[in-house]
Amino acid sequence: MRPNFRIWPILVLLSILSLPLVLMYFYLVVDTVTDTTAGSLLPDRFTLEHWKFLFEKPETGRASIWPVTANTFLFASSTSLIVVMISLTAGYALSRLNMPFRKFFLGGILTLHAFPTVTLIIAIFLMLQMSGLYNTLIGVILVKTALELPLGIWIMKGFYDTVPWEIEMAGITDGASRFTVWWKLVLPQVQPGIAALALFSFLEAWKEFILPQVLAPSGASQVLATYLQNTIMDDRKPDFNLFKSIGLFYALPVILIYVVFNRKLMNIYGGGTKG
Amino acid sequence: MRRAHLLGLGFMTPALFIIVFLFLAPVVLTMMFSFTNMSSGTGISSGGAYEVTERTIRLLKDQGFPETTADRLAEDTYKIDAAGLAAVQADFGKAFAQEIEAELSGKSFAGRRDLERELKRLKERPRSTRDLKKAADLFKRSILNTRFETEQAFLTSVDELDLGLGETETAELTRTAYTGWVWTTENYRLIASLPSTLRAAGNTLIYVSFTLAFSIGFGLFLAVTTFYLPSGVATTFRTIWFLPRILPPVIYVMMWKWMAWDTGFLSSFLAHFGVPPRNWMLHSDINAWVVVVLINGFVGASLGMILFSSAIKAIPETMLHASEVDGANRLQQIRYIIMPQLRWPILFTTAYQTLSLLTSFDYIYLSTDGGPGKATEVWALYTFHTALNNYGGVLQYGLGAALAMVLVVIGIAAALIYLRLFNFNDLVAKPRIEQ
């Protein structure tokens, strides 16, 4: 569209409104490599001191960042893997296969998506305590997987819905079974969907805070979200330069995935399925 | 059953398995818990013990139990019985024991002093006062802070105190001293009567309406303004406003804390204008609400912006060109062409966000944690605090579950309404391959 009108008023207005966020992002990055004199707004010395936590042994009572990062990665990738695998089959069944209670399942999954964490977490907390999975990464992975599953199935069903029926019809006519058709013909068609869902679930688990906080609070199964929050809550005198360095380290994979896979992810975020 | 049916059900099995165990089971359990007085005090396993503690006595008094009797429960009683006599015989010899039996058998004393006075009159008593005290202690009978595994053992010990309890009083004492959980509808009565639930409901109303209004309004504003900007600039602004949504909540809220805390950016900046530094996040109720609404509103506006942007992009460009030829200005274009196209996305976003705001609490938990005081404690956070994150004392699983059930009922009702509203039947097209 040709701009046959003056855009600068909009530009100025948007810039002013965006200023708080821009400042937050700017200082999030800059503060990790600089020091600021107290009371001053602008940083005045360059330093790498705030990144020491990556290499040095931490103060007593605080865990080293690397095992925590490994935990977070394990948590996010397992959740993503399980969600994708289960959604792949369930989504196909709901999209294409004739079975009893199909409509009921679909409605049920949409209703489950409306189920908030807080309603389930009390019972799950007690269930995990009884089954001995409390304070383990496995417990958190299972619960996060379950919570992400309704959305995952719904998204996968959406991707299957866009695959033309003719492809399957052709496969069936040539004598392939429904299973073979799914495995050999349909799956390659929904590959973008698989990638999008895998990335999306990975990010959702990577960002998760409440579940690890409640279900696995002890040190051994800490993840980056709880690690950062504990660091913030621990300090009597807040050291925001340190918080931001840890924060940026924690956010890097998220930003990286967003920059590289922007278009793929927009398939899901743009679908308006979470908020 | 046809083979396609079997394949379909087989494909659904893993999902159903997880859903049954991690959705249905928790919901059923939550419902059951909501009818119990389960807490970290009672434990979660069935069966408990009987124990009189300071708290039990306080509770008894609150329930109208006779005060003096309740106080007696806490005091030591000295009772001359066979067990005590045997102990005295072992420690101080047979003569003393026999003398006590002859003189004082069956009597009981409210304090050690009374018993000592009696013992001092006896001929066979030990000579030192220390030994006398020791001998008196052998008759001490107290039930305070003693665990009894069965009701029978508990009642026997209570009888030894000679409190002269009636039947109803004994029943009341037994019920109050029981440490396990019991079935009760008390939680729902509490929800209906506690002032704190009313406040949580009020806070939720404020939170949902303001955040919703902000995120829909501002989301629309962002979508429309960026639509009229050249694509490079538009992408920049959309990225700025999309980031709050994909950044982890802990980092996003940390940036707000850096902005708002008393040593933060805002305070440092305003100090140049003579405003004394303060915590803009928790200084007053109004401060806290503004921060809570903005933190959640920015994230909500991200979602709105993306949905509305793609809806605007779907408008045929020829319509917009035609309106321009007809002399419509920007505002008229927005009012008569863009807004009508956005009716459905707005309805959808409103419906969706109402439900998720109603039940979400992570951003509030991370930022104000319901403070200052309980000014920003919404229902979901109140539930969470009650059941799982109560720094002050016991975790009340039962009450928390009942609070959660209220959200479950609202959630299911809303989901059913939405399914109707958004034409669920269109979503379930019939499979075309029959086998």
TrEMBL record, chain B:
Pfam families, A to Z: BPD_transp_1
Cell compartments where the protein resides: Cell membrane
Membrane-topology annotation of the record: Multi-pass membrane protein
Record keywords: Cell membrane, Membrane, Transmembrane, Transmembrane helix, Transport
Top-rank taxon: Bacteria
Cellular compartments per GO CC: plasma membrane
GO biological process per UniProt: transmembrane transport
Chain segments annotated as transmembrane: 7-35, 205-229, 286-308, 344-366, 397-422
Residue ranges of domain ABC transmembrane type-1 in the record: 201-418
Sequence similarity: Belongs to the binding-protein-dependent transport system permease family.
Protein name: Putative sugar ABC transporter, permease protein
Species the sequence originates in: Roseibium aggregatum (strain ATCC 25650 / DSM 13394 / JCM 20685 / NBRC 16684 / NCIMB 2208 / IAM 12614 / B1)
Taxonomic placement: Bacteria, Pseudomonadati, Pseudomonadota, Alphaproteobacteria, Hyphomicrobiales
